[in-house]
Amino acid sequence: MKKYSYKKSRGESLSRKLGEEAQIQIALMKYIQLTYKHKLLAVHVPNDLTRSPAEGYVKKMMGMMPGFPDLIIFKKNGGFLLLELKTEIGKLSHTQKTTHNLLRQFGLKVRTTWGIDQAIKQIDLFANE
Fold this sequence. Notes:
This protein has 129 residues and is α+β, with helices and mostly antiparallel strands. The protein has four helices and four strands. The chain has one domain (14-127): Trna Endonuclease, Chain: A, domain 1.
């Protein structure tokens, strides 16, 4: 997989400021956009933002679901995949496990991947099923 470099306007490398999971997600979004431009549409679910307790309460009241997967990937002509991205050594939190199980009980397709290679494999499988 080609490594992507993300630069701020001042030339400072953004990749140094991002965590590994964010870098995987950015690379995966580029992969989807380049490889499946007319077939898939991926949307990030920003549950990972730091919030005050009051902001967190309001977001939950508005429908935010803690532990919801990182990406919703829609397939043209129907179907979608909920994808959780982890680093190769990352672990699902208890909240993520609980939420993912709940989503599966509703018949939704939820996948967790570790590292960019597994993520690309899941995207390819989904795009071509």
